[in-house]
Amino acid sequence: MTGKGIDAEAGRRERTDAARNRAKILAAAEGIVAAQGVQGLSMAEVAAAAGVGVGTLYRRFGDRSGLAYALIDAREREFQQAFVAGPPPLGPGAEPGERARAFLGALTDRTVEQLDLLLMAETAGPMARFGGAYDAYHSHLALLIGRLRPDADAYCLADALLAPLAAPLLAHRLRGCGMAVERVKSALDDLVTRVIG
């Protein structure tokens, strides 16, 4: 084997090890957040739970905030894959109104699942909620609304449907007001019916 082949082999092994470490770190961090909340997410505790050095954690994620964003990103990719290419009614194959209802219900569950992490992310700055995932949600809903009501302002209506799922508002309703998640979902279903007819 040439020197170049050895380097390629070492590079593949390193990428495999890095991917395995990343998965272990994210699993450990998810476990800590589930048990203790975001406030319990310390780099030292995550490193110990994952069986890696603290330096590895800092090199890969930068800081606690970077680790939190990685947790959000991993779950976000799964969610987007589900509504873009998963089975109906969330994915393609169902009629637009049914897909919009399924999407908002699934987004409610997805937001509740990582509410503390999303609160941290969405309140990091005045425009922190927008861009990235929000744009994907908005485009998806605007497309569904446009198919059902070509005459409507699908752009603004998509914002109206997403507004109740802002992490700070949802946390206030669920935790501060004691509202049940099912009540939020029911109201969103009603809102979809009123928006799309």
TrEMBL record:
Pfam families xref list: TetR_N (PF00440)
Keywords (A to Z) from UniProt: DNA-binding
DNA-binding region as annotated in the record: 42-61
Membrane spanning stretches: none
Domain HTH tetR-type residue range list: 19-79
Coiled coil start-end: none
Alphabetical list of InterPro entries matching this protein: Homeodomain-like_sf, HTH-type_TetR-like_transc_reg, HTH_TetR
UniProt name for this protein: TetR/AcrR family transcriptional regulator
